[in-house]
Amino acid sequence: MKLIRWRWSSLRAKLLVMFVLISSVPMIAVGLVSYQKSFATISGHGKASALLEADRLARDIDGLFRDTGKLLELEENPQVLRFLFTQSDTYEDAKAILRTFELYRETYKYEDVLNISMVNLYGRGISERRGVFQLERNPLRNPHFVKLLSEPDLVLNVPPSEALSLDRVDGFQYEGRNVISIMATIKQRITKEVIGFIVIDLDDSIVRQFCDDSLIGKTGYFYVASSGGSPIFMPSAVKPDALPFQPADLGPRLAADREGFVERSVGKPLFVMYSTSQLTGWKIVGLVPLQELMRDADEIRQLIILSVTLSLAFTISLYFFVTTRLTRPVQVLMNKMRQAAGGYLEAKVKPTGSDEIADLGNSFNIMLGKIRELLDQSIKERENIQKAELRALQAQINPHFLYNTLDSIIWMAEAGKNEQVIRLVQALARFFRIGLNRGMEWVTLKEELEHVRSYLVIQQMRYRDILDYEIVVPDSLLHIHLLKMTLQPLVENALYHGIKNKRGRGMITIAANVDTSGSLLLAVEDDGIGMTEQRLLELRELLSKGRLPEKTGDEVSGGFGLHNVHQRIRLYYGEAYGVELYSETQAGTRVILKIPHRMGGAIYEKSDAG
């Protein structure tokens, strides 16, 4: 006993205890701080990654229904409307509708669409699988059709548990397949009265495949549920009764569009995350054990415990080696994690050696790389959304201009005005040739002016007594490239909202020049009725805020065409460019289009209305 007491009271023992405390206490402190930082970082990134995966699955489902929803354009087909509205169609009419179905399939490659059906309010319909048929039961007994009658503009996405498609109502089965039915009303073109319904049956296996392909770790999974929490689509390896909680308990917690939370009332803690499909309203719910999500953090904890235990067993000579090989890399990793938590994602660790700390550094570097990939993907998706918005703006075409022009050609031909018919058809051909332009978005100013000239020739022949036009553009500006269909909507506004409402003849003038800042200014001016100061202020406010005015009739309202051109210019060239509007009551309106001058003698043309 005295020997043991002497040994512990010796200087060597005191130094050993001191060195052990010096080596172990700081390492324990560093280990705890590193673990807390690592746990918080990994926990946050793991939960964020799981939520992003739920968002991706929701976008995939929205993309599926958005693409399939293009088939709803069939409700605008004149042959379909005539078939549903009248009872006098022929076999050729039915064949024409079925050929239209086939054309849509060949165009959009709808491999998962099982059937397209249309039926009127009296049960008479046509489908790909059945051809022309008559339902034995009243279609208005279908609760989904009743809901559509009360909300004609609604598009229903009916899951397999609720789907009552036309064929199956009439006894047809899909050989054991489950389907998702997309339902909408078909309305009469003029009165907007509901005359029937369109039903698209989609194989639900594609949504189930989304669930099978989207996994979280080793045991986590996603499933699709209704807004009330009831499962709709489950992964193949999971049964609905295997869920850890009841839909009635989960439903109230799915009120937001996306969220994640930890559920501790079902045994082992679960991390539950969900996102919402915007088109269907379905909830994409993900479940993963919290322990599995935090596996990396547990490994860090084990590493720290191991490091501290080893530090207590080493001698004084190994003390410096342990602190150099273990504490310093942990401190470096902690600093890099702090930089990453502050938003600096280039804070990579340079691992040295092949120990656990080096593996942790490599894992940290891989994690930062994944985060950067997700951010790049998000930026790319925003760019794609902007491009999609631009294409939607360019796709706004008013068919009434074509109908009215064709009507003019018919009555001119009936009146024997052959030369005028030829001139009008040539102008119409040039108008659409340049307007289509092989799908290209850019044209020269010369081509754009030719497009506008063709439009004015057509309109001048229709409104000979009221319309004159004048084009004054220097030749040096003709080779400048700009977005197509930028001048024609402005000229159309000048005609329909300025000249047409004026008594007597009116003049539309198109001019171009370059201002002192080097920007190209394209002006469209009319001497029509103009607009009041209040209306001018309203239109300027709509343009500045980017708000789209409502349509007010068959023709495009004065603000709609301006908004179209203004938004397209700003999407391509930036906020500094766009449309400027000036007007005075009973004096006329002047619209100035400002774009960059990127390329660089005179066109002077005055119409002859005689």
Automatic annotation (TrEMBL):
Residues 324-376 form the HAMP domain. It comes from the Bacteria. Its main location: membrane. One of its GO terms (molecular function) is kinase activity. InterPro entries: HAMP_dom (IPR003660), HATPase_C_sf (IPR036890), HATPase_dom (IPR003594), HptR (IPR051552), Sig_transdc_His_kin_internal (IPR010559). It is found in: Cell membrane. Keywords: Cell membrane, Kinase, Membrane, Phosphoprotein, Transferase, Transmembrane, Transmembrane helix. CDD domains: HAMP (cd06225). It is a multi-pass membrane protein. The keyword Membrane applies. The chain crosses the membrane at residues 15-35, 303-322. This is Sensor histidine kinase.
